[in-house]
C-alpha cells in the first residue's frame, strides 16, 4: 500500500466500503465502551446521499478512510473520521482532517468542532497536537463524550 491517495466526495457505490472501514476502525473500542460507538451504526447511505461524506481512495476505488463533516452555523462539525486499520500510519487521517479544515475555511466557517468518546484515548492525544482544544465533557446519547474546538 503506497502513500498516494486521493480525497473525493463519496458516492452511493462507496457505502459498503465506508461502513466496513468504520467497523474496522472502531471495532477496537466496542469492549471498552460496552456497545458499538455511534460511528459504527451511522446511516452511511443517508450521509453519503446528503453529500457530507468524503473518502480517501487509493487507486480507482479502494476506500482506505473517510470523513463526515458539515456546516452548523459559524462552525463545521467534524462528525466522524476513520482510517482502515491496514492504512494506519500513512497520514490518511491527518490529510482528511486537513481537507475538512480547508473546506471549512472556504465555506466561511470560523471554527471546527468535534467530539470523541472518552474511551478513545488515542484521539484525546491526537486532536490537541492538531490544534484542537478540549472545551467540555458530558454524557450524551448514552456515551461519555469529550468535545474539542479549533479556530480556523
Could you walk me through the main structural features you see in this protein, from its secondary elements to its overall organization?
The protein has 152 residues and is α+β, with helices and mostly antiparallel strands. It has a domain at 6-110: Gcn5-related N-acetyltransferase (GNAT) (Aminopeptidase, 3-Layer(aba) Sandwich), CATH 3.40.630.30. It has 5 helices and 7 strands, in the order E-H-H-H-E-E-E-H-E-H-E-E. A 7-stranded mixed β-sheet has the order 1-2-3-4-5-7-6. Strand 4, helix 4 and strand 5 form a beta-alpha-beta unit. The longest helix has 15 residues, at 92-106.
Assembly state here?
single chain
What string, H for helix and E for strand, traces the elements in order?
EHHHEEEHEHEE
Strand portion: 35-45%
User: What's the CATH class of the domain at 6-110, please?
Assistant: Alpha Beta
CATH topology category name of the domain at 6-110? Aminopeptidase
CATH superfamily of the domain at 6-110: Gcn5-related N-acetyltransferase (GNAT)
| Head-to-tail CA distance between termini | 32 Å
Largest sheet report: 7 strands, mixed
Gross morphology is globular
